[in-house]
């Protein structure tokens, strides 16, 4: 099968993006004692700088912030008053710097030997754990097909990215945040998070460390898939280079037009908003992302309903203060993130 080359957006410019991300929970009747966990603070490093960040939350609660095991900045807040709507509005101005692409400075065999050494190094262990599932042997045949050609890890990663792009259909609504990898593999369909999960699995099975990344595509006026919401892609570790961003949803390298919010092993580590509350189980979550450009224009999309990770605590719950129970639950989540 002929392989097309992934296109990079590498330039010498330093793009600056304005992003507005609005998350709104609407409940069928008043709820209270809402405790929430948010990952809406972009990563800051030599390739990405936060110039300005404003966070506005219903009820103006105090937000406690900590950094988890994967380096993500996490916000934690409680909203105890009765309310029928909870809105979290994050407004960002972010500057990005393009990252030069990998060059082949080592022989292929040496690069694979370097990757073999990472299996026992703590910073990479979590990003090498792949998931067993029913059709694992079928996926193994695909991953091994590319390894037999003697290609470098860089080229194998690019080929895997293209494979996912070509063999999986982008269809919204056929999967959820809880969909397992075996179902994604079976239906060969899904959205960006599903594409990212499959690519992570392939890379890890090939002993290439892979991170799941969530964030935004900026600008998103080019009609590429994943616009109008948070997006997901992958970072693969390339010897003698570092982490290379790959977007299997669009078959391209994720460079300076991608703004990173969080990274981890999977969607579970990177969910922008999750929490618990006391009240009725029926609620609606809508999310809208608006991206501003250098010329002052913006790309706005209609709000859409997204998978929610907000859990209702029923009224006749166990003995004790319900707010304290909710708080302890979120603290357990925090502790798990730090382990």
Automatic annotation (TrEMBL):
Database matches in Gene3D superfamilies: 3.10.620.30
Database matches in SUPFAM superfamilies: Cysteine proteinases (SSF54001)
Transglutaminase-like domain boundaries: 184-250
Any single Pfam family the record assigns to this protein: Transglut_core
Top-level taxon of the source organism: Bacteria
Stored SMART domains: TGc
InterPro entries per record: Bac_transglu_N, Papain-like_cys_pep_sf, Transglutaminase-like
PANTHER family in the record: BLR5614 PROTEIN-RELATED, SLL1049 PROTEIN
Name the UniProt record assigns to this protein: Transglutaminase family protein
Species the sequence originates in: Pedobacter hiemivivus
Organismal lineage: Bacteria, Pseudomonadati, Bacteroidota, Sphingobacteriia, Sphingobacteriales
């Amino acid at each position: 099968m002929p392989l097309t080359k992934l296109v990079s957006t590498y330039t010498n410019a330093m793009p600056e993006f304005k992003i507005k991300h609005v998350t709104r929970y609407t409940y069928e009747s008043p709820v209270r004692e809402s405790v929430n966990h948010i990952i809406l603070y972009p990563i800051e490093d030599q390739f990405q700088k936060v110039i300005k960040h404003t966070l506005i939350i219903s009820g103006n609660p105090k937000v406690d912030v900590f950094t988890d095991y994967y380096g993500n900045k996490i916000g934690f807040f409680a909203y105890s008053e009765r309310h029928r709507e909870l809105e979290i509005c994050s407004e960002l101005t972010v500057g990005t710097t393009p990252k030069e692409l990998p060059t082949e400075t080592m022989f292929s065999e040496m690069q694979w030997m370097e990757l073999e050494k990472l299996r026992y190094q703590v910073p990479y262990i979590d990003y090498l754990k792949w998931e067993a599932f029913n059709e694992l042997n079928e996926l193994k045949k695909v991953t091994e097909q590319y390894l037999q050609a003697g290609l470098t890890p860089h080229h194998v990663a690019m080929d895997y990215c293209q494979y996912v792009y070509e063999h999986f259909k982008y269809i919204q609504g056929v999967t959820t945040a809880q969909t397992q990898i075996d179902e994604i593999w079976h239906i060969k369909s899904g959205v960006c998070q599903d594409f990212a999960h499959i690519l992570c699995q392939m890379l890890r099975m090939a002993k290439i460390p892979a991170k799941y990344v969530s964030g935004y595509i900026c600008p998103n006026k080019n009609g590429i898939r994943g616009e109008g919401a948070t997006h997901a892609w992958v970072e693969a570790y390339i010897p003698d280079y570092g982490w290379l961003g790959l977007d299997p949803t669009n078959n391209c390298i994720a460079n300076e037009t991608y703004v990173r919010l969080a990274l981890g092993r999977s969607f579970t580590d990177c969910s922008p908003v999750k929490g618990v509350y006391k009240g009725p189980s029926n609620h609606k979550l809508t999310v809208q992302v608006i991206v501003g450009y250098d010329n002052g224009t913006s790309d706005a999309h209609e709000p859409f309903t997204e998978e929610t990770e907000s859990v209702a605590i029923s009224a006749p719950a166990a003995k004790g203060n319900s707010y304290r129970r909710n708080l302890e639950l979120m603290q357990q989540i925090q502790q798990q993130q730090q382990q």
